[in-house]
Amino acid sequence: xxxxxxxxxxxxxxxxxxxxxxxxxxxxxxxxxxxxxxxxxxxxxxxxxxxxxxxxxxxxxxxxxxxxxxxxxxxxxxxxxxxxxxxxxxxxxxxxxxxxxxxxxxxxxxxxxxxxxxxxxxxxxxxxxxxxxxxxxxxxxxxxxxxxxxxxxxxxxxxxxxxxxxxxxxxxxxxxxxxxxxxxxxxxxxxxxxxxxxxxxxxxxxxxxxxxxxxxxxxxxxxxxxxxxxxxxxxxxxxxxxxxxxxxxxxxxxxxxxxxxxxxxxxxxxxxxxxxxxxxxxxxxxxxxxxxxxxxxxxxxxxxxxxxxxxxxxxxxxxxxxxxxxxxxxxxxxxxxxxxxxxxxxxxxxxxxxxxxxxxxxxxxxxxxxxxxxxxxxxxxxxxxxxxxxxxxxx
Length: 395
Fold this sequence. Notes:
By secondary structure, the chain is an alpha+beta fold. The chain has helices spanning 7-21, 26-43, 50-93, 127-133, 143-156, 176-195, 212-220, 225-235, 244-248, 252-261, 281-292, and strands spanning 99-104, 108-113, 119-124, 166-172, 202-207, 268-270, 301-309, 312-321, 324-331, 337-344. A hairpin with a 3-residue loop joins strand 1 and strand 2.
């Protein structure tokens, strides 16, 4: 952002323009005016003489010089008006962007605002964003009013609804404290707006501490900086499934859901993401127990939380029973089991305990593991036998 030109700098420029444009005739003109006044008085009483003739010649000459000065000053004034007006237009054309606010649902819109929180520019980041803007002229509009107008347009066009009720607000600014304040203001205002509608929306607000790498990532995948920031934060969780490719396939609402369920550190969160299209955690656990041939009385401990698998929202269900650790990935909409693993709980937390649930006893050739003594059913008569598909993640 460029430094603002100060009033003192403007004044100096104006003074210089006057000095450069105005002839140095002030003293000369004042002398002529004094002669004109004296001659006028003398002309009333002095008959036609050489002095009178001289006076008559001086008076119009002085008047002509005065008019010339007036024209010069008027010209300078016009030039100064052009300068000031031109500076004002230039400064307006080069309005400083104080913060950038991204509004993401499925449509993505980027709003540039000045220090007074007025919109400088509004642009769509995708085709749906163009539909939402719908030729609205938001320039000069207060940021809260503009965001309410965008939310209203999203409701009108069906992008916001009872089942798709989530909005993400992301703010970037070189002034972090001010950027955080803008984020809190906009997020809170949008939440109030949505609570007055039938959808009771959820709003995620975040301050984006972006850099060139994040901007390049967002540009490469044609997403907002805010969405890129949330994806990077989700990748930093302990889920092995939340890869860049998997998360890029998810909608904004699905990303917001994961951030809420996996306790991703965001600045503000209002409301709850709609989960009506997903089975409950209890049903996901029941499906996993049924697949393992167990009941809840046999389970020592367990948990279920939202996750993702190649662009699909899943439940990751984990529990221990009979000295073994079970993990199931279950489609959160259909209840279908996508993947499963069983680890023999030898207490060492080694990754080599992992096995696919479709292998009855999967051998990792560690002498201390209990499963080494079991044959997998083939005929190679190895004392420590294992399947060819050991550690196959696709099973």
